[in-house]
């Protein structure tokens, strides 16, 4: 095998070390279970339009594939060879391939079908976290990787066992055995072709406590160009097994297991850290009379969790009309200090492995109530995420860092989720109990991923709480939605009037508050005085970046009728 070195990305926090190992294995003949690697192919997927982030769960551990399915392609850890390392040693990506590049279930008369190109909904297995509703805090992970380099394997080659099979007695057609590959804590699967009926993918890993239960990652049959599952957290592991199954005539080609190591860093935020979160906007004493808007909750910014720079993202949405709730799947067994490293791993998989421009989610919330800023662009703006395909447009994607099929969300997680959604809903002037039509579907303003796509995401336990979540958000918003900015906007026709739809949600700035609309801006000074910016001045103000530009906030009204015609307005800058 040959290797090559290339610089990929530097972290915003320079010590945020992350390593990736990609295992690419096509099955050998059944008589020879030992892989014979060929020259690796580590080419990344081409940049795709961000559509569906496949972080979603639709089943349980040890789940049996549909009756009539047969194993297609099975991957277990193989001899890994480093193919790409950045010059700073921050990212290592390893690819292993066998000479064979295709495997088809043995049925010569069957039609192999068409290629399945969609991103996948991830179904995760069981984990050691208590699942009772009374468990307010999850059990922290027992071990945390803290070194910059992945730990080296010390155990012997694992004894392979097949993934759960159907009741018809089907057996594994191919099982590859190798030594362990070193340390990793997150796994994703990609492929060139995976098509046919009764398709299934199963993942398990070897941890310090032995082999984990199987996590099922189910291919989504939606027609897109992305051929991948989401990445799931699997705890500190040293070996992996991935198995594809399908009915007669199904086909698997170019399967790859992507193993990501995201060591924690001493500066990573946690619930016990004084620098755990960046404080949200302050409440301004007398602003907005008796109807103070819902304040921004504490949030861990991208720079704090060590985000990579974006790579050519699309423009923002025009406005925000709804909030989508997701979960990330995988193991629930992590500490608050590990959360930032998990978010880094998700971003790396989305941006580097899948070729997206950034992490797909707009926000993430961990089991300890920590809120992480997701995709870049500013938390108050309508950033176009990559979490629900057609429903990425005009929505906010919030992902809970848990597997809701195997555990209950903690009270801390739910409280932070509800605070975050209330902030977005109230200051975008939305009704938390309302409905909206998006992508041809009539959905709740606060909806679950599974309401718009074929997935159980955000899992059983969060799904069962969606009505409760909406009610909790409504109670936070009640009496705080209507500000004098809102009143001015409504008096001028609301979304269909002079100012148009909300673009940048209402937020605190320069001792007052401001909302930026499609056709202007309204600023409320600390004494409640309103200064509106619109018409030609408003267009120029928007083009410069609103109050974020050198102009700052308006300090007076628009004045027209000056000599030789025209209007002027004074600004802070």
From TrEMBL:
GO molecular function, one term: zinc ion binding
UniProt enzyme class: hydrolase
Assigned keywords, A-Z: Hydrolase, Signal
Compositional bias per record (Low complexity), positions renumbered to this chain: 136-166
Name this polypeptide is given: N-acetylmuramoyl-L-alanine amidase
Domain N-acetylmuramoyl-L-alanine amidase: 308-459
Family (UniProt): Belongs to the N-acetylmuramoyl-L-alanine amidase 2 family.
Region feature Disordered, mapped onto this chain: 28-169
Species lineage: Bacteria, Bacillati, Actinomycetota, Actinomycetes, Propionibacteriales
Region forming the signal peptide: 1-31
UniProt-listed SUPFAM superfamilies: N-acetylmuramoyl-L-alanine amidase-like
InterPro entries: Amidase/PGRP_sf, Amidase_domain, LGFP, PGRP, PGRP_domain_met/bac
């Amino acid at each position: 095998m040959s290797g090559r070195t290339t610089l990929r990305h530097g972290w915003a926090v320079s010590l945020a070390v992350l390593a990736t190992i990609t295992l690419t294995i096509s099955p050998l003949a059944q008589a020879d279970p030992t892989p014979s690697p060929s020259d690796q192919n580590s080419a990344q997927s081409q940049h795709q339009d961000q559509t569906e982030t496949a972080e979603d769960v639709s089943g349980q551990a040890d789940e049996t594939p549909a009756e009539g399915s047969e194993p297609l392609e099975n991957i277990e850890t193989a001899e890994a060879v480093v193919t790409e390392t950045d010059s700073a040693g921050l990212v290592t990506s390893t690819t292993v391939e066998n000479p064979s590049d295709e495997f088809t279930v043995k049925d010569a008369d069957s039609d192999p079908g068409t290629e399945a190109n969609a991103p996948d909904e991830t179904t995760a297995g069981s984990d050691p976290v208590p699942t009772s509703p009374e468990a307010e805090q999850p059990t922290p992970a027992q071990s945390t990787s803290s070194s910059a380099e992945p730990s080296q394997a010390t155990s012997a080659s694992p004894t392979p066992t097949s993934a759960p099979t159907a009741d018809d007695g089907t057996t594994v057609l191919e099982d590859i055995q190798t030594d362990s590959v070193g340390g990793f804590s997150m796994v994703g699967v990609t492929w060139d072709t995976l098509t046919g009926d009764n398709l299934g993918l199963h993942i398990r890993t070897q941890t310090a406590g032995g082999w984990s239960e199987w996590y099922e990652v189910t291919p989504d049959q939606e027609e897109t160009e992305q051929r991948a599952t989401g990445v799931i957290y699997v705890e500190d592991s040293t070996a992996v097994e991935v198995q594809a199954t399908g009915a007669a005539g199904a086909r698997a080609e170019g399967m790859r297991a992507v193993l990501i190591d995201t060591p924690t860093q001493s500066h990573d935020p946690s619930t016990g850290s004084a620098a755990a979160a960046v404080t949200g906007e302050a409440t301004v004493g007398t602003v907005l009379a008796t109807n103070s808007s819902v304040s921004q909750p504490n949030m861990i910014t991208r720079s704090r969790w060590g985000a990579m720079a974006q790579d050519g993202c699309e423009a923002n949405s025009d406005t925000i009309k709804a909030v989508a709730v997701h979960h990330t799947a995988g193991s629930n067994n992590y500490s608050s200090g590990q959360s930032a490293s998990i978010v880094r791993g998700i971003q790396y998989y989305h941006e580097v492995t899948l070729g997206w421009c950034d992490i797909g989610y707009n926000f993430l919330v961990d089991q300890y109530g920590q809120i992480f800023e997701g995709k870049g662009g500013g938390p108050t703006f309508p950033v176009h995420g990559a979490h629900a395909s057609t429903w990425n447009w005009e929505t906010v994607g919030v992902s809970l860092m848990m597997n809701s099929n195997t555990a209950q969300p903690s009270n801390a997680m739910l409280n932070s989720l509800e605070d975050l959604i209330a902030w977005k809903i109230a200051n975008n002037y939305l009704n938390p109990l309302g409905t909206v039509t998006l992508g041809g579907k009539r959905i709740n303003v606060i909806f679950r991923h599974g309401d718009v796509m074929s997935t159980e995401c955000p899992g059983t336990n969060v799904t069962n709480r969606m009505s409760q979540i909406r009610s909790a958000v409504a109670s936070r918003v009640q009496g705080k939605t209507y500000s004098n900015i809102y009143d001015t906007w409504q008096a001028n026709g609301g979304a269909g009037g002079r100012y148009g739809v909300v673009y940048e949600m209402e937020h605190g700035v320069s001792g007052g508050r401001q909302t930026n609309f499609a056709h202007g801006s309204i600023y409320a000074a600390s004494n409640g005085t309103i200064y509106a910016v619109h018409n030609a001045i408003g267009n120029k103000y928007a083009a410069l970046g609103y109050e974020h530009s050198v102009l700052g906030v308006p300090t007076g009204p628009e004045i027209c009728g000056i000599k030789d015609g025209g209007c002027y307005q004074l600004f802070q800058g």
